[in-house]
Write a sequence for this structure.
């Protein structure tokens, strides 16, 4: 069966520090991968998505970047965090052929202080 | 054109009551999805709708895809405390990307 792993679960980082959040998927090949951010427990904003290794599409301009070094690995990064980067970050995957395969990870709560 | 308007923003109900929430869009689309997010967790798919007019149930949950393909509702019958969470509608845009509504925060008082 397919599983998605996201870590760390919580993170407190000072302003100006770098960031690296990792997401991996098991049990499937060539998944579509997504990074979402959720502020204040409300709507989910799509940040990046990837349909293959090295292929990254950005939805909104921001202080973050994403990379996909391996088929089932998706990384969210920042060189210098801002206070406004605080939020709940969610990784998700889909088969790309059916919406029912859209599955979220358990999320990372990032607090920038 | 891609925004989803979800209402109400929040609901406070007593255990045992029925709940109804809805989502509308200015554009038509082919798929409606309803997700639930428990506190501190990622959203989990509840119901997927693929046809206009489709009515689908999942236990105490019932959702319908509006005939105009621009709206959907989700009903929860006989609510229980574990129904607490945020409920999101979502639709598919190009490239299997999902656009989410702003969510309905449900609180169930025992």
């Amino acid at each position: 069966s397919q599983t998605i792993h996201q870590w760390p679960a919580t993170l407190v980082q000072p302003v100006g520090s770098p960031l690296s959040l990792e997401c991996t998927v098991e049990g499937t090949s060539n998944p579509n991968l997504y990074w979402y951010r959720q502020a204040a427990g409300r709507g989910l904003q799509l940040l990046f998505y990837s349909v293959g290794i090295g292929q990254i599409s950005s939805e909104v301009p921001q202080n973050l970047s994403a990379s996909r070094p391996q088929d089932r690995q998706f990384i969210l990064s920042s060189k210098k965090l801002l206070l406004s980067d605080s939020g709940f970050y969610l990784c998700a995957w889909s088969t790309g052929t059916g919406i029912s395969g859209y599955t979220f990870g358990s999320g990372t709560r990032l607090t920038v202080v | 054109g891609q925004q989803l308007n979800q209402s109400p923003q929040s609901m406070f109900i007593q255990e045992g009551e029925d709940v109804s929430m809805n989502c509308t869009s200015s554009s038509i689309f082919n798929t409606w999805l309803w997700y639930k997010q428990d506190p501190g967790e990622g959203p989990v798919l509840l119901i997927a709708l693929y046809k206009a007019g489709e009515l689908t149930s999942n236990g105490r949950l019932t959702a319908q895809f509006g005939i105009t393909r621009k709206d959907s509702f989700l009903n929860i019958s006989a609510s229980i405390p574990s129904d607490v969470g945020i409920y999101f509608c979502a639709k598919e845009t190009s490239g299997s990307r999902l656009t989410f509504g702003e969510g309905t925060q449900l609180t169930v008082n025992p």
